[in-house]
Specification:
Structural class: alpha+beta
Oligomer: single chain
Number of strands: 8
Distance between the termini: 43 Å
Length: about 230
């Protein structure tokens, strides 16, 4: 009988210890945010030429002639070939219910990256002179973006650790090592925050047409720390 009781006690003790060993360790899960701000030093201009008519061959010839002028101008200005890219070419067919006829619209788009912002005004003026009839927008960027992203990641982890320590201190506990880290990828890239203007001292008129502002590069991470 005693032997049976002893075995039963051992079985219960062993089961309890195994259950304790299988329980996950206590953790504290926090979200950290890292933000780095910088004045952009590059800009990408997205331009397009569009012609409409009834003859597709004529439309292509018109588009090709304008694009050829654009490329010649950019080369003359000293823009590197790697900074000029064809984004798309499109031909669409449209029906006019009033005249009962079909017309076509031919589009060709280019992106031009300027690594020297002082070239913005003369390049923009020259592009308009070549005959383009659409500007789809400009996008500011930084030549040091990879380093800035790295800084943002470090700040995000530091921010997460600070939050974890604040929460744990209220409970009179301490934060242990990190057991998992995951990063959120922002669906929208860094956008300029228009806060300050750029004056072009090379322009005799002192006219100003763009405001640089600040780029905000942001990283968000989830970090799980052991809670001691």
């Amino acid at each position: 009988m005693k032997t049976l009781q002893t075995l039963l006690i051992l079985a219960i003790t062993t089961t309890t210890m195994m259950a304790q060993n299988t329980l996950p360790p206590p953790t504290i899960d926090v979200t950290g945010e890292g933000i780095v701000r910088v004045v952009p030093d590059e800009v990408t201009i997205n331009i397009r030429v569009e012609n409409t008519g009834e003859n597709t061959k004529t439309l292509k010839e018109q588009n090709d002639a304008t694009i050829n002028e654009v490329l010649k101008f950019l080369k003359k200005t000293g823009i590197d070939d790697k900074d000029v890219r064809t984004e798309y070419m499109n031909l669409s067919k449209n029906y006019d219910y009033n005249s009962k006829t079909y017309t076509f619209a031919a589009n060709q788009s280019l992106s031009v990256k300027l690594r020297d912002l002082k070239k913005y005004e003369p390049v923009m003026k020259g592009l308009l002179d070549t005959g383009i009839n659409r500007i789809d927008g400009v996008e500011f960027s930084s030549s040091n973006s990879e380093s800035l992203k790295s800084q943002a990641r470090k700040k995000a982890v530091e921010n997460a650790q600070m939050k974890a320590k604040e929460y744990a201190s209220v409970l009179n506990q301490t934060v242990g090592k990190a057991v998992s880290i995951s990063e959120f990828n922002n669906s929208v890239g860094p956008q300029p925050m228009y806060k300050m203007a750029m004056s072009d001292s090379s322009s005799g008129s002192g006219d100003q047409t763009i405001a640089l502002g600040e780029m905000e590069i942001k990283t968000t991470v989830n970090v799980s720390f052991l809670l001691n």
